[in-house]
Amino acid sequence: MAASRQPDGSAAEALAAALAEASATPPARLGVAVSGGGDSLALLHLLHDWAAANGVALSAATVDHGLRAAAAAEAAMVADVCAGLGLPHAVLRWRGWEGRGNLPDAARRARYRLLGDWARGQGLAAVALGHTLDDQAETLLMRLARGSGVDGLSAMAARREAGGMVWLRPLLGVRRGTLRDLLRARGVGWAEDPSNDDPAFDRVKARRALAALAPLGIDAAGLAATAGRMATARAALAHAAHALAQDCVSIEAGDVVIDRPLFEAAPEETRLRLMAHALGFVGSAEYRPRLASLQAALGAALGGRRRTLAGCLIRPRARSLRITREYRAVATLETRPDVLWDGRWRLSGPDSNGLTLRALGPEGLARLPGWRDAGLPRDSLIAAPALWRGPELVAAPLACVDATSPQGWRLWPEKGRQDFLSALLSH
After folding, report:
1. CA distance 219 to 226
2. Which residues bind ATP (predicted)?
3. Smaller CB count within 10 Å for the chain: N or C?
4. 105 has binding-site annotation
5. 293 marked ligand binding residue
6. Is residue 8 annotated as involved in ligand binding?
7. pLDDT digit string (tens) for 296-324?
8. Domains of the chain: which residue ranges?
9. Fold of the domain spanning 9-218
């Protein structure tokens, strides 16, 4: 590799400013995702310089999705670059594609999951990603094509918490071409993914559309600025939903309970935003429901009719709306008692050898004639976890019933009201 030179000043300054805004003090340990493409390799070199100047231990990882023959060679190339820089590097392999559904989305989810698991295992404070100003503009165009609203058209966040990890995008203010110039100046080559030129992919279509729109003055910088302004609008709307939630939301046994009169008095946008958040909170969904589905479900609920959406049940009452988990969404979910169940329930108690955690279900509830004493709706109880030994019900802690052994089991949701409120303001 060529001898290290000073990085392009504008890119280095933008990265340093973004990292300073993300955290008042540099983290002790930071991760970086490096695919071998120009953006992520430039990020690696810039971060290497920044980390050395700030006493940060930097580690890199490459995700091999197993979808292209060249992927293994590209991961090996990144490993060589990291070795030259004196940085630890890991290759994370995904072999989960079954040939069905949305490949880019499945690969993206797998990538974040693998990187998050790797980062937590290494004790890293955050993982940096190589998204650029061009990515920001292309994303805005793709979401325009889907008819997205304010949230969808908002800018990708420079700092985001998701999946138990902090994700940083310190190059969102830097053009893709600038990063390639930086690599050329350092004598560093990079890999080109053939899919970047495949018009079957929406991002490639967006990239070409940007080139076609340039004569009209619609360019990447302008679209990224628009995305930033939409992010400002989203923040204002999120604060309105947060204020409403403070007044009208309570959390009971993992369910979201909304004060109906206060909720109905709010503007429609605020109601929809709060309901979407409640569904995501209960159902652990990564994406909010489509607007038309959300409007239809909320309209039915406010009209007094039960509705299911996003793996949740909306139960209307005269003075409240209760969002609980839909039993069908968890009917086949089974884990060990020491594992987080449905992404939201934890259990503690006596020895659990030979036991499993799965939904109580209608059959289990039928074995508990005193379940009404728990004071919770039937729908909430049948979708809650219970302890089983094969077909034998051992304990149903949420129903305050222990079927075969002394009391001692405790069940509680991983997140409570404060988590619900704070998540409304995070993106």
Report:
1. 11
2. 35-40
3. N
4. no
5. no
6. no
7. 999 999 999 999 999 999 999 999 999 99
8. 9-218, 248-327+418-424, 329-412
9. Rossmann fold (3.40.50)
